[in-house]
Design goal:
The complex is a heterodimer. By secondary structure, chain A is an alpha/beta fold. Chain A has 15 helices and 15 strands. Chain B is α/β, with parallel strands linked by helices. Chain B is about 40% helix and about 20% strand. Chain B has twelve helices and 13 strands. In chain B, strand 10, helix 7 and strand 11 form a beta-alpha-beta unit. About 5% of the residues of chain B have low confidence. The chains are: A alpha/beta, B alpha/beta.
């Protein structure tokens, strides 16, 4: 691995769930365009490669009614990114979009539009939700089985890519038919960059075959190295070069002038992300009942869950689990560690992560280690405050990374270039060939 | 101000796939006093995205995409339109089309609808948008620190739309748009027979009339404007110092559109617009009516419109004021929330 590895940053404006603090005075609107513009422009000042927006196609529910405790209510990703394209000039614009509740021709058209509107800065973060609960918002309903979601997604992505390549598509699939020829010329980066976040073995194989960048969950150094190796092995099997699939784990950076100040901030952030009500709600989804009388500062409930399998907060991404087994294990764990409910929930949450909490210099050094070992290609940072959550990172961390030679000093022209994606792989060459033939013919 | 006044919209498809050029036309149209610019889908970049790109670059002018109601997902289009309204702070609307053609249907693996089914389908789609846009009450985001609640679930409602060919549960994933309800402009044929009642009840706001010649258009506008806001479409090829509109039209050799076609001097267009304002003036009614102009050549015709037609209309006090929102421009009342009213 070369020591010249550079890290790239993306920023993920979550707009839902407990990662974003809303209780603080410093927390701004989660919906107004001004918040999106400010965060995107701050990121661009810090030479971030990408600005991410998520998507959830049904409002979360908890025990049968709308989940009230967390931030919710996002504008449409691509509509927002098209407006951001007008007030930024270099940063990549990444839209999370579902393969189950979109039509390939429509989605291909809209993503190609965003790519051209932004001058070659668009990307698609591919997600594959499949439940009938979300399907209730769509014409097609919940037509897809869990085990079919990746085969369906791959079929879908192939169709979209064919459309982008400009060739007429006559697709007869198990779940949909498409007769369509794209009408939008290719952007300066050829086609939108493809991101994907699935972590199951199937998801990893899918990413190795189809995507440019993995938005991974593997933040710790050892974990990140192992994941890199695993992805490289899977990519090699389909003929892709080492490290050609880029990896950007999602992360929170909690940084301050001194280690002590960062630690203090860490506690403030966690307390605000998971308050007493959220801690109870977390337990409730596994117990399957309201815990109104239960003290969040006391031990886990002594009574057993009322459901066999957890009902889970729908739309939160949790899978069902066997409730009683889980309850017994958790009670034992909390007792063992001397944790009350709120402490237990905070420790279990992936927001317990402490990897990038530290002083500006400590974190810059830690990141230099990631760069040197080639563990990742960058990080997709979730700010816990909107819209000011990147200010310290851009003002204090980025310059330190640039001094260490592990962060870009300037932008290239397209997102593809900014992510260091080459177009020398076989399938990209193939795509270019098809594209140029189609363009000559038209 | 005079009751004889009108709204003017300029279609920007002539700027093609260049969003920067398109935004710069939107700025010019805004400065000239146009009430809206429109973006239609045909073969170009996504209309909602083109409108959205122009939003941060303009302040007052409305940005209206043309979107098909048959072969799209109502949940997606409702979210996109609400988002455009959020981004533009109340300056968006929807020109609804029913593109019942095989090429549109086959792109999404569906079949065209029988003609008698269009009205019901469009009405179901409109109902879905209306109910989704109301599904968040305006103050559903409460940020109540004491109870730990960001949202108040009592102020969120399931849309529960059961259409003839689809159903949508809701609520929306996006808060209620600033206008509450975006103005929906729908073509007249959808309003016939039971379609008329169905659409009116569920609230398309503006009926778009179609007529082969100007007298017919004016006669229709006069009748329809008594019941509600109307819109007419015109292709315009205006005379310049160097060539007539008719010459340019002939030179372009384009297929005629469904729209009425105007060729001639700016003065004659102004006269026609004055007649439209006259025909649609109803004493005591604050609603305004729209003339939607499709320039034959955006570069040439928008210049003539901006330099000659709009100044003359302003001078004659025929241009309605530009509202803070598109609803305001149309003179539509504040949109009540159907779920709030019921409770």
């Amino acid at each position: 691995m070369s020591k010249q590895n550079q890290l790239r940053f993306g920023v993920f404006f979550q707009g839902v769930n407990s990662s974003t603090i809303w209780r603080s005075e410093a927390s701004g609107s989660q919906t107004d365009f001004a918040s999106f513009r400010q965060l995107a422009q701050t990121a661009e000042r810090g030479i971030f490669s990408a600005f991410f927006l998520g998507e959830g196609l049904r409002l979360r529910e908890h025990l049968g009614s709308i989940h009230e405790l967390d931030v919710a209510g996002r504008p449409d990703a691509q509509t927002m990114l098209a407006a951001l394209a007008a007030v930024t000039s270099k940063i990549g614009l990444v839209a999370t979009q579902n393969t189950t509740y979109n039509d390939p021709a429509d989605l291909a058209h809209r993503l190609a539009s965003l790519d051209l509107i932004s001058g070659g800065r668009a990307a698609w973060n591919i997600v594959t939700t499949h439940n009938a609960w979300t399907g209730a918002n769509f014409r097609r309903g919940g037509y897809l089985e869990h085990h079919e979601r990746y085969s369906h997604a791959e079929d879908f992505v192939r169709t979209v890519r064919q459309i982008w390549e400009g060739s007429p598509v006559h697709h007869r699939g198990r779940h949909y038919d498409v007769d369509y020829t794209g009408t939008i010329p290719a952007s300066p980066q050829l086609r939108p960059v493809l991101f994907q976040a699935g972590d199951s073995p199937e998801g990893r194989d899918f990413a190795a075959r189809q995507t440019d960048v993995i938005f991974s969950a593997h933040v710790g150094l050892e974990d990140a190295l192992q994941f890199r190796q695993d992805i490289n092995e899977r990519a090699a099997k389909v003929g892709r070069a080492e490290n050609s699939v880029k990896i950007m784990p999602g992360a929170e950076f909690i940084i301050a002038e001194t280690p002590g100040a960062a630690e203090e901030k860490y506690h403030w952030v966690r307390e605000n992300q998971i308050g007493p009500q959220q801690a109870l709600a977390y337990i409730e989804q596994f117990w399957g009942t309201r815990l109104d009388g239960v003290d969040p500062y006391g031990p886990l409930p002594e009574f057993d869950p009322v459901v066999e399998r957890s009902s889970v907060t729908r739309g939160s991404g949790f899978q069902g689990a066997k409730s009683l087994e889980l309850a017994n294990a958790w009670r034992a764990e909390a007792k063992d560690k001397g944790q009350n409910i709120i402490q237990f929930v905070r420790s279990r949450s992936h927001r317990a992560d402490h990897t990038f909490t530290g002083s500006y210099d400590q974190i810059a050094d830690r990141l230099a280690q990631y760069a040197e070992l080639g563990a990742v290609d960058g990080f997709n940072i979730t700010p816990w405050l909107i819209p000011t959550g990147l200010d310290e990172i851009v003002d204090h961390l980025v310059p330190r990374l640039q001094e260490r030679g592990i962060y870009p000093e300037a932008y290239a022209d397209t997102l593809r270039e900014n992510l260091g994606l080459s177009i020398d792989s076989n399938h990209e060459q193939q795509a270019i060939k098809i594209l140029s033939t189609a363009q000559e013919a038209s | 101000m005079s009751e004889r006044s009108l709204l003017l919209a300029l279609n920007l498809d002539g700027a093609g796939n260049d969003p920067i050029e398109s935004a710069s036309y939107a700025q010019e149209a805004e400065n000239a006093g146009f009430h809206a610019v429109s973006f239609s889908a045909d073969g170009l970049l996504d209309a909602v995205q083109r409108a959205s790109f122009s939003a941060p670059k303009t302040q007052r002018i409305a940005l209206i995409p043309v979107i098909d109601a048959l072969f799209t997902e109502p949940f997606h289009t409702a979210t996109q339109l609400a988002s455009l309204d959020i981004i533009s702070q109340g300056r968006s609307g929807w020109i609804l089309e029913t593109q019942n053609e095989a090429v549109q249907a086959q792109a999404v693996g569906r079949e065209t609808l029988p003609d008698h089914g269009l009205s019901t389908e469009a009405a179901d789609v409109i109902t879905t948008h209306r109910r989704l846009w109301d599904s968040w009450e305006e103050n559903a985001v409460i940020r109540d620190v004491a109870s730990g609640r960001y949202l108040d679930a009592n102020k969120l409602h399931y849309a529960d739309v059961q259409g003839k060919s689809f159903s949508v549960k809701g609520p929306a994933i996006t808060p209620r748009p600033p206008q509450g309800q975006l103005p929906i402009i729908a073509p007249a044929p959808l309003f016939t027979d039971e379609g008329l009642q169905h659409c009116r009840l569920n609230g398309a706001d503006v009926v778009k009339l179609n007529g082969a010649n100007f007298d017919e258009l004016l006669a229709q506008a006069q009748i329809a404007s008594r019941k509600g806001a109307v819109a007419i479409d015109l292709d315009v090829y205006l005379d310049t110092a160097t060539e007539t509109g008719a010459q340019r039209l002939a030179a372009q050799g384009v297929q005629p559109t469904e729209r009425a076609e105007f060729t001639g001097t700016p003065k004659r267009l102004t006269e026609f617009l004055a007649r439209f304002a006259e025909a649609t003036a109803n004493p005591g009614d604050q609603r305004r009516h729209l003339v939607h102009l499709y320039p034959g050549d955006l570069r040439v015709d928008s210049q003539v419109l901006i330099e000659e037609v709009l100044p003359e209309l302003k001078h004659s006090n025929l241009l309605a004021p530009v509202g803070n929102t598109l609803r305001e421009s149309f003179g539509l009342p504040v949109a009540k929330n159907r779920f709030q009213e019921a409770s």
